[in-house]
Each structure stands twice: as C-alpha cells, then as structure tokens.
C-alpha cells in the first residue's frame, strides 16, 4: 500500500468516510460530493486496490491539478505507483496521449477530430442519425436507445474519423466494455480485447496505401515522410494511438448521449424549447456536459513533485483523483448548480478535462451531441422513458456510469 503523505497537513490515515468508488447511479449526484466539497475538498480515500489517494471535489483545486504538469497522467501506468484499480489495459493505452505529443502527432489528431475539416461533418452525422431513427420508427417502440441509436451512431462517427470500416462497428464495440473494467486485481484475459482490436487496427495501418482513409491515412503519410523531423513512427505506435482513440471516443460519446437523453426527458420544458428554438442546442449541450454524470470515477494523476493543493502538500508519487462531478456542481463557480439550465451564461465545466490532457475530440463531440439530440427531438417529439428512472440498471465495475439499457417510447 502506498502511504506517501508524511509531512502533509492532513494525516494519511485520516480517510474520508466515503465508500470508493462512489455510487454507480448516473441519475443522482453522489451525496458524498456535496459533503466533501464543503468539509474537506481534498480528502484521503482508499482505492479499490487498497492504495491511498487524494480525492478532490471542488472546482478550484480540480482545475489546479488538471492544469499543473507536475501531475502526470502518463505516470499512472508506471510500475509500483498507487492506483485507482488494477491496470487491466496495457500501459501503452494510458501512454497514448503522451505518445501523440512526443511524436508530434497532436495537431493531426486535433485536425482529424475537428468538426469542420474532419470527415464526419454535421451533415454526415445528421444523415447517420436519421438512418438509425428510420429503423427505430419502422420497428416501433419500445427500443433500447443504447443498442439501436447511441452506440451505432457514435461508432459510425469514430470509424469515419479514424479510417476504420464502418461495417465493422459491431465487431469493434463487442468487447469494448472490457477495456473499462475496474478491478482490484489483474484477471486472466483482461487485455484480450485490446490485443484483438490492436491486431485489427495494425492490419489497417499496414494495408495498401490506396485503401487507407481518415486519420490512419494521414498518420501513415507522416510515418513515410522522409522530411519529417521528430523521431521514427512505428506501425505499432500508430496502431496503439488509433485503437486507443477508438475505444475512448466511442465509449465517451455514446455514454454521454444516453445521459443527455436521460436528463432531457426529465425536463420536458427544456425539450419543448429546444424543439421550437434549435439555436439553443449548443448552450444546452454545454449544460448537459456540466451536469450529467457519465465520466464516472475520478480523473487520475500522479504527483511528480511535492505540490501544495489546498491545505495539503501532495507528495511526489502520490495519487490524486479529480472528481469532475464534484467540480461541475461547485456553487462557488456555478450559480444554483443543481438546476438544469440551458440558458446558463457562464459554463466553464471540466467535462473535457483541462490543461495538457484536454480532450482532443471536444469540438467534434459537441457537434456529435448537438446533431444527435436535435434529430431525436425533431423526429421523436414525445420521447420518454419506457420505465421509471429508478428501475434503470447501472453497470458496476466500470470506469464510467453506464446504463445497461435505456428503453424509450415516443
């Protein structure tokens, strides 16, 4: 067990009286967030692996840690460091963004996921959304919005951006949840899905030049450019980048869509206004990103040096968990944060993180969500849940808060 807090203002054995991880329910903000933010915005917790960590629940400290490069995401994959849970994915997955930055690929990733210059434009996304809803309407309600809309829509976008065959989306998502498992110990086969998908992507990286598209094509062009300065790009590095972006991209976008729909159907007046005034959708998406709970467990960072955070000196080597739902509901930064307000004027939420590891897909994610929600409200004006919200089943043992199914009527 890691206990590196000697010299901190708080004693390392003074654990917050919370069960970690927090509640898996995605429709209720965990009560511990509000209490800790008021009483102890940086608090000691014990993780699933039995390690010590500092849990941050207010906005100011969360932004400080996310923007300070002395707190490393990359080091969370290093051997011997305290963890949230066992590393059930290869270390190179955690290192992907570091690989992108160090290899000079960051701008290419940003360009690929740009909402205007990228292949998955708003018009393209709108066509996909209508196709999926056509099939839903033909079948008739109830349908599971996760399986029939959110997952295939998100997978189609990410495949298009990356240059993977859209027809293979089911194959690529079938074992995706395995990469997001939270476990106290490594288990047999925990990296099996990564190995399978990595091999699939590697074959596309090594395919004939004329068959490549999207980000894969551009990265291969950089790999083959003799004038490129910045170190060798290997096929394996490119495949690791693309495989990681697929998993993170699909999981984040489809889970957010489910949470967004769940929030909207519980606020029918907001749904009515968005149908009548679709120009309000961008602001509504920002508010949905602030107040939905799809991110799940805290964003992890390892301190590279001794750093003062609030009334604690976080020691080098310690684990810090940034609780985004705590920060995004902080009344010091958001007026009446419990209220869902699509007219909220100032909304500097942390749903995409902050600092060096700010999500490179933030722009296209906003377009992805706005288009999907706009088409759903247009085509299914009476959209509603097919069962009471407290009957939803929330996945346990997963990094994100994921409803197993989201059956809807219209």
UniProtKB/TrEMBL annotation:
KW Transcription regulation (keyword) present: no
Name of protein: Cytochrome P450
Gene3D superfamilies, per database record: Cytochrome P450 (1.10.630.10)
InterPro entries per UniProt: Cyt_P450 (IPR001128), Cyt_P450_B (IPR002397), Cyt_P450_CS (IPR017972), Cyt_P450_sf (IPR036396)
Lineage, uppermost ranks: Bacteria, Bacillati, Actinomycetota, Actinomycetes, Kitasatosporales
Family: Belongs to the cytochrome P450 family.
Transmembrane regions listed in the UniProt entry: 237-265
Taxonomy, superkingdom: Bacteria
Metal-binding recorded as keyword: yes
Gene source species: Streptomyces durmitorensis
Keywords: Heme, Iron, Membrane, Metal-binding, Monooxygenase, Oxidoreductase, Transmembrane, Transmembrane helix
